[in-house]
Amino acid sequence: MEFEKVVDRINELARKHKSVGLTDEETAERAELRKRYLENFRNNFRQQLDNIEIVDDEDSVKH
Fold first, then answer.
1. How does DSSP assign 18-41, residue by residue?
2. Each residue of 4-61: pLDDT tens digit?
3. pLDDT band (50, 70, 90) for residue 2
4. Beta-bridge partner residues of 11
5. Which one of 9, 21, 41, 46 has the largest count of C-beta atoms within 10 Å of its C-beta?
6. Which of 31, 36, 39 is nearest to 22 (CA)?
7. Strand pairing partners for 55?
8. How far from 49 is each of 14, 36, 42, 60, CA to CA, in Å?
9. What is the pTM of this model?
């Protein structure tokens, strides 16, 4: 499932949870979607950190 669709579905389930509640299947789906969202977030964040280059005053690049 595409990342934006995962977020949209999580939000849809959150709204439903606040209004009428969720079935057991929807609660399980929400847990799986949250897990997928966090994995994706961590991977993206790790990639950003791995791509950071530190440049000191002498213009030497450190990774």
1. HHT---HHHHHHHHHHHHHHHHHH
2. 999 999 999 999 999 999 999 999 999 999 999 999 999 999 999 999 988 877 666 6
3. confident
4. none
5. 9
6. 31
7. 61
8. 31, 20, 10, 18
9. 0.76
